[in-house]
Each structure stands twice: as structure tokens, then as C-alpha cells.
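At this stage, I wrote out one protein's amino acid sequence and its C-alpha cells, and that material follows here:
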Amino acid sequence: MATKTPSPVKRHNALVRFSKEHHYGLLLCWKIRQGVMDGIEERRIADYVLYFFDADLKKHFEEEEKTLFIKLSPENDLRKQVEREHEAVNGIISNIRKGVVSKDNLLVFADTLEKHIRFEERVLFNHLQQRLPEDELLELMNNHSDNAGDSDSGWADKFWLGKI
């Protein structure tokens, strides 16, 4: 007997922008894995990871911490988890900045970021939209700056397209 996959939960408009930004984070994970699989020099991939982090992901994390996580008490297990995950991602970025660059480190970064995004999408966002009053959700929607975009427009090395 096959297990039925739960149908997706409709995302509240207040969280849609965060989800769009998550799409770009997942795309970063794919690009890292594609580059590693294609044997691209690790430094090229790492340079892009740092670029993307500074141009996009850092702002996204700050926005989540400033507007979403504070909606949960500091003792809340979900809040503790997402804060730990942000720290983990920031720690890997710090190591990359220090020159700790290897295929393994890049793949750990991609895995860590993807797991974090999936947790936010599947657990945290559902929890928030089910428990926050509508006026707080609307406040989130009105105060969220849209960080999602084509941050790649400033990056020339499209290593994920294959060896060039």
C-alpha cells in the first residue's frame, strides 16, 4: 500500500516572498553540486558562494531573524533550530572566507543550506501561518523587503553551465 503524499499547504502571501528567496537559495545548492560534479575548480565555486551570500543570502537571513523568528519565543524549539541553522551556514561561510575551500566543504554548505530551507518551508512557515493572527501576517507582508532577484546578473562566471 503506497503512502499518500500530503498535499502542499497554500503559502500565506506574507511568506511568499521568503519562499521566492528560498528558491534562489535552492538554486545556489544546485549550482554548487553541478560545479562539483563537473569538476569545476573549487575556488571558482567558493567565490560564487561568497558573492551570492553577500548579495542575497545574508540579507535574507537578517530579514528572517528581524521579522519572523521574533514572532516565536526565545525558548521555542523551532526558533532555536532555525537560529542554530543560520549559525551553521554563517560558520561555513566564515570558513570559506578564511580559505577553507574543498569539494567536501562546498557540498556540506549545499546540504546544510538545503536542509535549512526545506525545514523553513515545510515546518516553520506552516507553523507561523497557522498560529499568527492575520494582522501580524499582514504586517510581515507589508514590512518585508523583497530580496529575491537575479543576483547572478553581476556574476560573469557561470561555472554551473559546464566547463568553459
Remarks:
- The longest helix spans residues 103-131.
